[in-house]
Amino acid sequence: MGSAGIHETTYNSIMKCDIGIRKDLYANNVLSGGTTMYPGIGDRMQKEITALAPSTMKIKETFVSLCPPLPISKELQQAMVLLNLPITG
Asked: Which key words are in the record (predicted)?
């Protein structure tokens, strides 16, 4: 049994809120902390939440980061190629 991803956790949290504020919650996601330094995390989060959310919702991700993006190791680059993920950074 695996754990829910951050996109699923965010989606589930929004869906537990009153229907009247869900639109605002989908439109105002803030990503902060260490994992936001990985290149492409915002685009991926936006793509994955968009796939889960109702099609009428506008999804927006905002970053708050005090650190520059982390360099991508050769091993991570190889894994990203195998998973067909964009390599930036």
From this structure: ATP-binding, Cytoplasm, Cytoskeleton, Nucleotide-binding
Closest CA to 64 of 38, 36, 26: 36
Helix (H), strand (E), coil (C) string for 34-45: HHHHCCCHHHHH
How many domains does the chain fold into?
1
| 58 pLDDT tier (thresholds 50, 70, 90) | confident
Q: Which domain holds residue 69?
A: 6-82
23 to 38, 48, 51, 67: CA distances (angstroms): 27, 17, 15, 30
pTM: 0.64
pLDDT digits (tens, 9 = 90+) for 74-87: 887 788 788 877 66
Q: Which amino acid is at 18?
A: D
